[in-house]
Amino acid sequence: MPIPNSYFQTLIFLIAFGSALTGAMPPQNPVQCTQTGCTLSNSYGVWGDRQPCHVSAAVYPTTEAELLSAVADASWRKLKVKSVSKFSHTIPKLACGGAILISTERYNSSIAVDKANSVVTADAGAGLRAVIDRAAEEGLSLAAAPYWEGVSVGGAISTGAHGSSWRGRGGALHDHVVGIRMVVGAKESEGFARVVDLREGDALFSAAKVSLGLLGVISKVTFSLEPAFKRSITFNFTSDDGIEDEFMDHANKYEFGDIQWYPSRHMAVYRYDDRVPMSTPGDGVNDFIGFQSNFALIAKSVRATEKAAEKARDTNAKCILASSFVAYKKLTANGLKNNNLLFTGYPVVGHQRRMQTSGSCLYSPESDKSVSCAWDPRIKALSFFESTAIFPAGQFAAFVRDVKKLRDLAGPASFCGADIYNGFLVRFVKRSGAYLGQPEDSVVVDFNYYRADEAGAPRLHGDVWEEVEQMAFFKYLARPHWGKNRKVAFLGVGRKFPNFGRFLEARKGLDRVGIFSSEWSDEILFGIEGGRGDGCALEGLCICSEDRHCSTRDGYFCQQGLVYKEARVCRYANTSAS
Q1: CA 206, CA 503: separation in Å to the nearest integer?
Q2: CB-based contact 131:142 (threshold 8 Å)
Q3: CA nearest 506: which of 144, 151, 116, 215?
Q4: In this model, does residue 19 exceed pLDDT 90?
Q5: Across 279-287, average pLDDT
Q6: Which residues constitute the signal peptide according to the record (predicted)?
Q7: How far is CA 85 from CA 40, 89, 368, 578, in A?
Q8: Residue 563 pLDDT greater than 60, yes or no
Q9: Contact 180, 220 (CB under 8 A)
Q10: Between 315-331 and 5-18, two packed helices, what is the crossing angle to 10 degrees?
Q11: Which of 503, 477, 499, 502 lies closest to 490 in space, CA to CA?
Q12: What is the pLDDT of residues 223-263, one digit of tens each?
């Protein structure tokens, strides 16, 4: 039975009301321990393979000396060791597989600004927001930041977190790093652990900037800063005609520009985002809608609506949701506020520290259980896959044209599932010197889409998203974001990074006995495909080659792509015929 339109009108009203909240239940601690051991989860509460991540014990250093002692103990006992922050926002299982888990949650007290040299040095566990605010107190700005501020500085640089910019040092946070102190394993004569202090130009610095936690445990990070500045932002909601021809000019014209592309709506939203003088009037703030607090009941209602649409195979319901959400984003400027309370018109001008990143659902007392981030696993609300493909700039236009061809063949409605979230978020990252960073100026594309509560459950129009995913990573050889993606995105990943071999050499030199590696992190680093069990393609654990990799009982069979014929996707059909 189709979902009535009146239901959607009520739901959108409730969402608008809920997003006006100013606080939320903070995310749960990712490390939960009992007398028998500990379990590590990510912020979404579920790993790619849906299997728990167990460790024997967790330690919480508060100083570099305590961190050194923890690594030395693990090294002496030849135990696998992994590190994690209090945020644990990484989707792949990079932090799993250690007997000992080192949490930097309590190693966050020191944030020192050297105003004369325009740098800030922070403990690895320090939150990004705290570092940004401390720099601002001294009249300085960190020029780059990921859009989500719920990250530690150590974790953010380890996985290549980024914003959007091709100018200056670029949009990737690690490219604004000028120093790293890291604790690594060592010989017995060195006390089983030592501190390496790396600066720009050092032989190992390019390996350490994006290390995936595989070289050692980051202790401190030093960032380059700039004199404080303001930004002016305007969103232009317009047609997606010509987006493949205009993205390059847009990236070059606006220092912090991005594009949100909603294929089902035939709409592109160009972000006109540039720095302006401090004297420019305005005290705006970026409070992105997706990162605002939500009543748990509302977030559950959105999830229930999407689940009902999936069960009924009601494409129209998903498209009504997508259309309503995009309209609401336009009305509210996607969370921009001119005066910290309301959006009153463009442009929105504000200080860099208030415009560069957001995450208001992070902050509130534990006592309030009624509101939270919408994906908080404790409320069993939003659950989604997040794919992030990083294209050489010269390949992106052809990818867009192929996606438009796929839209024509599958129908615009087949893209509504992603447009409910954020469509295709297009950002720009500059060429990096990091071995596991981007080897050329690149275009980053993020898209989120429905994930079922049960393993192996198919998705409405899931074949479209599998084809987009395979088209990106295997036809156009896009590189995966190290902190996001389903497992299939990492297949053959080493061949896409020219300095991959140099990173492996650095890892071998710093971690001679392999205490920082594990089966799970090696599967990501080396792009190893796991088991090919029933339903594995629906979970992104494999590319289907047999119907059993899909869900024949639900009418999903392994078939070739509509545009990218080499793709193999799980498509709803009467038979398994290609």
Answers
A1: 8
A2: yes
A3: 215
A4: no
A5: 97
A6: 1-24
A7: 11, 9, 23, 46
A8: yes
A9: yes
A10: 40
A11: 477
A12: 999 999 999 999 999 999 999 999 999 999 999 999 999 99
